[in-house]
Amino acid sequence: MIPDKAPKEDVFHGSEDLKKEAHITSFENYKELYMKSIENPDEFWGDVAKDFFWKTKHTGQFLDYNFDVTKGEIFVKCMEGASTNISYNLLDRNVHERKLGDKVAFYWEGNEPGDELTVTYRELLQRVCQFANVLKSQGVKKGDRVSIYMPMVVELVVAMLACARIGAVHSIVRRSLPSSLFLPLIRSDGFYRGDKLINLKLLADEALQKCRDKGFPIEKCIMLKHLSKEAEETSLGSQSPPAKRSCPDLQQEKQTGRVKKTRPVPQVPWNPEVDLCWHALVRGASDECEPEWCGSEDPLFILYTSGSTGKPKGVLHTVSGYMLYTAATFKLVFDYQLDDVYWCTADIGWITGHSYITYGPLANGATSVLFEGLPTYPDVSRMWEIVDKYHVTKFYTAPTAIRLLMKYGSEPVQKYKRESLKVLGTVGEPINPEAWQWYYNVVGERRCPIVDTFWQTETGGHVLTPLPAATPMKPGSATFPFFGVVPAILNESGEELEGPSEGYLVFKQPWPGVMRTVYGNHQRFETTYFKKFPGYYVTGDGCRRDKDGYYWITGRIDDMLNVSGHLLSTAEVESALVEHEAVAEAAVVGRPHPVKGESLYCFVTLADGVTYNRTLEAELKKQVREKIGAIATPDYIQNAPALPKTRSGKIMRRVLRKIACDERDLGDISTLADSSVVEQLFQNRCCTAV
Ligand code: WTA
């Protein structure tokens, strides 16, 4: 239950200024609305739905569901019977009804400083319509699956929304293509991340070959030449006559100009049987396209969850519920105002990018920064340079990025003013209080509240989160549930715990944006999320509730260690390690131990300029022992210059566990961003306890 009053001690607030314009201005205001959202969800979500365009109205219950496997099949339905189109709501509605056609939808900022492009809502609508017509001309129909494999460029958003416009289901992939899918594939030649060239075309060709080998041929590939006009002239030959430079090509020209001078471009092999050129196709396409009216529960996209826990699952989201939920969370969690400039640094290929770069912000008519590059290129001030350049007001990133930048101290941050910033957000993993403090004190200068948003690919949008002007913050706590979300904490026997407690985090009822199924495997959906505790959606995360009712995620349940009968949260140990000034990042896994059950194997990445030695090792052991207790004393500490991460920045603990145990069979590591890191860690394993 949410307490009636917010605590006054040991909490942090943003500046008072924020309250003046905020949608939700106080804790009491939050609580009142929260109760309404739980007691009368139809009315609460019905109000949200009023902002959107519905071709036909819904019939029956607003939100219908079964969360109990013992009573039959699990299902969630939102606004059954209604029809709409999400691209219409994101674009046409903003351009025509809300008169936001000239408003900037995206400031695109390339990997190289100086590469930039501005796209208004009207231009985005035209480009989406054009590409929707291209897809149609290639035979793509409502319900077809389209796979997208592209870098962080505006065309990626265009491709997603073009699919949505014609009712096709997009699935953005990063490394390996799931073999069960796809009519066409949309991809690009490649891109630069910092100094490193990523040749997407070659990677995609390899993946396609694998699909063919397994008997799943992909019929068509549309390729965007992002880097290479040279490639167009050499390898692509007559497939792509020189373009008349219209809007999409402007970006091309500008980048090509730069890239030509400074960078080698990828040479892309071209197979005229399968490969088609994006620009050539778009050039002849009309920029008007009547949207396909979709049922509320028609699929919108499939997204394969990161491989940090076993084989990927295709999480399926549907049109109306996802639209309402991403729109409402974006508006209230970032306290979105019409003149905001919002920047989410996530990869669009991650759920964070889907919900909070594409769908949520555009549904609100927001102006966003879309950044192709890295926080450390060309130097570690890049983020703050961009914040000043576009006067970013709301900024959303991951704890891993914060810890990375923290390594370099406050000077690179303070080189820039950051006066425009109002709200800071984090997502992806528990943020250790050390990093939280740095983000709050140094980046936000104690003025900006931090919204520590807990959610999952499966939840579609934020489920536990502070609201910037209403919720007093505690560093490291995702605080309270969002509207319509009812959390509970269960013990091992599935009993709900009251008051301060720790156990499994579950949800008791759905909200509009929760996933509907695992694509092609409803049984796996039920088994993964609903079988362990009938009647509840099980997140797989551990959680603690404190005396003030605040929720603290303690990490994945599978990241909990049992040392001599004591449950230990790896996140807690990591946090204690990172509090040492020599440590920039830490990851802790269990290693089987003959007496204790499990022992603690710690990987530490040191701050810039620090060298690893025995004295430091002893200090780290002492630090953890003092912070948590003797039971948590690390058994092994390994100096890890880098940690294995997914492209979305999540540490792959599963891989670290294998390294700790010297097991070379790593399973599926296709989502790993840089596989050389793993080999290096294997070579420098600790064999004897410290
Ligand atoms: C973790 C990311 C603590 C959690 C949107 C969850 C978090 C998993 C937080 C989902 C947070 C995400 N505090 N833990 N603020 N946000 N997580 O599917 O373990 O990539 O289950 O979605 O990330 O990761 P996913």
Automatic annotation (TrEMBL):
The family database entries (InterPro entries) matched by this protein are listed as:
ACAS_N, AMP-bd_C, AMP-bd_C_sf, AMP-binding_CS, AMP-dep_synth/lig_dom, ANL_N_sf
Catalytic function, reaction form: propanoate + ATP + CoA = propanoyl-CoA + AMP + diphosphate; acetate + ATP + CoA = acetyl-CoA + AMP + diphosphate
The region called Disordered is annotated at 233-265
Q: What is this protein called?
A: Propionate--CoA ligase
What family classification does the UniProt entry report for this protein? Belongs to the ATP-dependent AMP-binding enzyme family.
> EC number(s) per UniProt?
6.2.1.1, 6.2.1.17
The AMP-binding enzyme C-terminal domain extends over 572-650
One GO term of the cellular component aspect? cytoplasm
